[in-house]
Each structure stands twice: as structure tokens, then as C-alpha cells.
Design a protein that fits this description.
Structural class: mainly alpha
Number of strands: 7
Oligomer: single chain
Distance between the termini: 93 Å
Number of helices: 19
Helix content: 55-70%
Shape: elongated
């Protein structure tokens, strides 16, 4: 060794085991999520149907967006897209592979900011949520991975050799996230607010770099929206649907509500009441509340101990023992991105928690589903892990944190193996109430009958989870939803104005029994027409009826 050359930093076994454990978890989960994804929910579920339809349109070159779904996830499905039942099976496989890769990205992003041990904790903490979402053909897992990477990139950009370029990369990842789903715009707002309030005199240029990266990457859809007479960041949910009072079928196709029309109906007091009710009823907000409580507790303890800048938020011990395996550059090999990066991440997570929490609380009367908040769960959990480590260091010192890190690293393998065995081979989640629709021969025959109709025929197929999936025939006929707001007495007039035919299957029959008076169901599930009806054609052995309005 040349005299005067500094000794290389010693590699700590605990850090190596944690990082290797994370890689093992990523590899195992990749395989188990492929298995889980093939056991999807209904192939006729509405959101899945529309993502598959957009994938077909992307492959056919006829659309980049339908005004609601964004193109990145359907573009990943496009290579296997075709108007055949096997497309759904292939899409399940692609979706589960994407979910596995996104899950691994979450763990690596958390490790980039807070060290491999924290990355492992975060990865294990969200693996069951990823498994749940991977059962569907949906963009949420991809969005969650991209938001985690964007948050980590933003938090570490200030310490990069070329900060402006690093902030531009963070904005580009946010652009990919927005190309995945419109709700990513909430994280864009949270990121811009965080960068704009930190960084001193450099913050204006950093905000500009984030915006430039976002615009460059997101430009295909931004330009598409403008070319179709919409605002650049148009999405029907934020423009119209979120200003409705309740969910209804086909809201994204017919809603014209706006903030002005909502306030005209309700006023400020009604809006505040809706927000308060949503904070109580929106599923998934417990993640937001839990993360905020832990972060607040960590900040309180630091201030009480007078150690606001002393060793936190994760502490020098973990920084020196488990951060170096995931350090982004050689210069960071010992201490990782540093305390400021973790503080920046926590600030960004708090901003995201507030923006996402309020937006989805407002949306609760339309849709109350934890799926809406799932994409931001990994960011919130990473901030919570940072805060929890800070609390442990404040109460027990560096020795306690070192001991926990080593015990956690040693236990990572057995814990990951047991958890992932359950993820891959454990009992599936309970099925929703009612019969589970499948692509059975009868529904395929009904889809073939719809394709035989004249081009442009408007056919009511919803609300129903037993109708054949739209993507089998929506290039020929126009699927239409029958709004629940239409009273039974007004259905006949509505059909004459908005539809040319009705595909009556089990689901729609149970919803609107009077569409064909006198029709009953036999024990084998087929329809019973007591007398011939010139407006009704029996399809698929009697399991479906094609009804033409009077």
C-alpha cells in the first residue's frame, strides 16, 4: 500500500447481511408475486377492463389516454395485447412481474436514504400490500415504486455532485409516475412545495429543475391532452369526478361537475363537513395518521433532549454500520447520503401525507378504497422507520440502535422466508360476496354476438360484473353504463335516448329486473322467456339476452 493512502472503510457484517437479505427478499418476492398475480380478481372488474382496453388502443395506435387512465402501465401490457381471452392471463403475468420489480425498487429507495436495514424493514412492511394489489391488473404497484424512487432521489439530490441534474432526475421520475396514474400529481405538488421551502437561495433553480425534468418526461401525455382540447394535466377524476356527491357507474364518461358547481350546491360549510367525514371514512388514512404521529413524536423527543441536530434522525451508528452497502457513490461509502437527506425525506413525506390525505378524504364519498392511498404507503413507512430509529437513539443511545440493527440483520433471513412463504402460498383473501365472474364459454359467445352488431352500436353492459370484458368487443360497439341515479320508472326513456341495445346478464338482471317484464331465471342460471319477444334475442344458451329498447 502506498504510504499516506487512507485505509478503506471496514465493511460491517451486519450491513452486508442486511443488504443481502434485502436482495434475497426481492428475488423471492419477485417469484411469489408472479404466482399471486395469476390468481387475479375478476377479469371483468371495471378498472382492469379499461386498462386492458387502453393497452389494445396503444398497440393499435388509436389513443394515448382515455381521459382517465394514463399510458405507462397499459404500454407495458401492449406487447401481449390482443382481442382474445388469453390476453387477460398474459396481462396478469406482466402485472405481477411489474409489481415485483416495483416492490424491490421500494426497498432499494428506502435503503438509499436510510441504509440497508431501513430498506429491509420498509420492504417487509409493504410486501403484503404489494401482494394484495398484484392480484389485479392495475398500475398502483408501479406507481408506488416510482413515487418511492422519486422521493429518495429528491431527498439525496442536495448532496449530489451536480444537484441541479439530480433534482431534474427526480422530476423525471415524477413524470414517469404521472404517466402511470393521474394521482401522482399530488406527489409532484408535495415535492415542489418541499423543495421551494428549503435550499435557501438555490431553491428557485432546484424547483425549476424538478419542473423541467417532469415536463420533459411527461411531455407525450401533456401534448396529447392539449391537442385534444384539454388542460395539459387533465384527468377526469380531478377535473370532474371528485366534485360529485357519490359514485355512479360511468362517472368518468358523463360527469360535468366542477368546484364551482359543487360550492353552488353545498357552500363552504358543506364542503368542510364532507372533508371531515372523509377523514373518518376513507380507507388507508390510518397509514397517513400513523406516519405523522411517529414523525411528530421523533421531532418532539429531539427537541426535549436538545439534540435537534445531534446524530438524528437515524443516528450516526446506523449511518456508519449499515448505510454503505447502498451508498450511491464511492464518496458516500461510509456515511451514506447523511442526516440532511433523511430530514429532507421526512419533510417530503409529511407534505405528501398532508396532500394525499386531504385529497383522498375529499374523494371518499365517491370511492373509499385503500387502493387510492396505497401508492404513497412506502414513502410514509420509510419516514416512519426514520422517525422510529431516531426515537430509539434518543432513548437508548447508539449502543441500543446498534444492537437493534444487528439483531434485525441476523433475523432478516428467517423472517423474510416465513413471511414470503405465506405471501406466495398462504390462503388467498376472501372472495367478494356474490358469484365470481369468469371468462366462461357463455360470456365469450355473448362477446362474439356483440362483435357481430353494426359498428357504433351503443350497448348497455353495466353495472354488471358478469358481462364479458369490454376489450373483447369495444372496437366495434360502444359499451354504455346505466346510471344508478336513473329511477326505475325512467329507465325506458333513458334507454331510448342513450342506448341501442342492452346485454342482459345475471348482474344487470339483478340490478334492474324490470328491463324485460315477465323474464325469470331457471335453476341452471339461464333466462326463462315465457313467450316469444321480438325485441329479445337469447344468446349463449340462454345465459344472456340482447334486448332492444322499445
Amino acid at each position: 500500500m502506498v504510504p499516506g493512502t487512507p485505509l478503506p472503510a471496514p465493511r460491517d457484517p451486519a450491513g452486508d447481511r442486511a443488504f443481502l437479505g434485502l436482495l434475497c427478499v426481492a428475488a423471492l418476492t419477485f417469484g411469489t408475486l408472479v404466482h399471486a398475480g395469476t390468481a387475479s380478481l375478476s377479469p371483468t372488474a371495471r378498472d382492469q377492463v379499461h386498462d386492458l382496453s387502453l393497452a389494445l388502443r396503444l398497440r393499435e395506435g388509436t389513443a394515448l389516454s382515455d381521459g382517465n387512465r394514463h399510458p405507462l402501465f397499459p404500454a407495458l401490457l401492449a406487447p401481449v395485447a390482443r382481442r382474445a381471452p388469453a390476453f387477460f392471463d398474459d396481462a396478469c403475468l406482466v402485472a405481477s412481474v411489474v409489481a415485483g420489480l416495483a416492490w424491490a425498487a421500494v426497498g432499494l429507495a428506502a435503503g438509499r436514504v436510510a441504509g440497508a436495514a431501513a430498506g429491509l424493514v420498509v420492504a417487509l412492511g409493504v410486501v403484503l400490500e404489494f401482494r394484495l394489489q398484484a392480484r389485479r391488473v392495475c398500475p398502483e404497484p408501479l406507481l408506488a415504486g416510482l413515487l418511492a424512487v422519486a422521493a429518495a432521489r429528491t431527498a439525496t439530490a442536495g448532496a449530489a455532485a451536480r444537484p441541479l441534474r439530480a433534482f431534474g432526475v427526480a422530476g423525471g421520475v415524477l413524470g414517469l409516475a404521472w404517466l402511470t396514474k393521474g394521482s401522482a400529481l399530488l406527489s409532484v405538488l408535495a415535492t415542489l412545495a418541499t423543495v421551494a421551502t428549503t435550499g435557501g437561495a438555490r431553491r428557485a433553480r432546484r424547483v425549476g429543475a424538478v419542473l423541467l425534468g417532469f415536463v420533459v418526461v411527461a411531455s407525450p401525455l401533456l401534448v396529447w391532452n392539449v391537442a385534444h382540447g384539454r388542460s395539459p394535466v387533465f384527468n377526469v377524476n380531478s377535473a370532474h369526478v371528485m366534485w360529485e356527491d357519490a359514485w355512479d357507474v360511468e362517472l368518468d364518461a358523463r360527469s360535468t361537475a366542477t368546484p364551482a358547481s359543487y360550492l353552488a350546491r353545498h357552500g363552504v360549510e358543506g364542503a368542510l363537513r364532507r372533508l371531515g367525514d372523509g377523514l373518518r371514512t376513507q380507507r388507508g388514512l390510518e397509514w397517513v395518521a400513523g406516519a405523522l404521529v411517529l414523525v411528530a413524536a421523533g421531532a418532539f423527543v429531539r427537541r426535549r433532549r436538545g439534540g435537534r441536530g445531534q446524530g438524528g434522525p437515524v443516528g450516526d451508528t446506523v449511518e456508519a454500520t449499515v448505510a454503505h452497502p447502498v451508498a450511491p457513490t464511492a464518496g458516500d461509502a461510509v456515511e451514506g447520503p447523511g442526516r440532511e437527506a433523511r430530514r429532507a425525506f421526512v419533510r417530503l413525506a409529511v407534505a405528501a401525507a398532508v396532500v394525499w390525505g386531504l385529497a383522498m378524504a375529499w374523494y371518499a364519498p365517491v370511492v373509499a378504497s385503500r387502493r387510492l392511498l396505497f401508492p404513497v404507503f412506502p414513502v410514509l413507512l420509510t419516514a416512519a422507520v426514520i422517525a422510529a430509529a431516531d426515537l430509539l437513539r434518543a432513548w437508548g443511545g447508539g449502543a441500543a440502535l446498534r444492537a437493534v440493527a444487528r439483531v434485525g440483520a441476523a433475523a432478516a433471513g428467517p423472517v423474510a422466508a416465513g413471511l414470503l412463504a405465506w405471501v406466495g402460498f398462504g390462503a388467498p383473501s376472501p372472495a367478494p360476496a356474490g358469484p365470481r365472474p369468469t371468462l366462461d364459454p357463455a360470456s365469450l359467445e355473448a362477446a362474439a354476438a356483440l362483435r357481430a352488431l353494426p359498428a357504433g352500436t351503443r350497448v348497455v353492459v353495466r353495472p354488471s360484473r358478469t358481462a364479458p370484458p369490454d376489450w373483447l368487443y369495444d372496437d366495434v360497439v360502444e359499451p354504455v353504463g346505466l346510471p344508478a341515479a336513473v329511477a326505475d320508472a325512467d329507465v325506458a326513456a333513458w334507454l331510448r335516448a342513450h342506448a341501442d341495445a342492452v346485454l342482459l346478464g345475471d348482474g344487470l338482471f339483478r340490478h334492474r329486473r324490470h328491463l324485460v317484464p315477465g323474464v325469470g331465471r331457471r335453476p341452471d342460471g339461464t333466462f326463462d322467456l315465457p313467450t316469444p319477444n321480438p325485441r329479445v334475442t337469447s344468446l349463449a344458451g340462454g345465459a344472456y339476452l340482447l334486448v332492444r329498447p322499445e
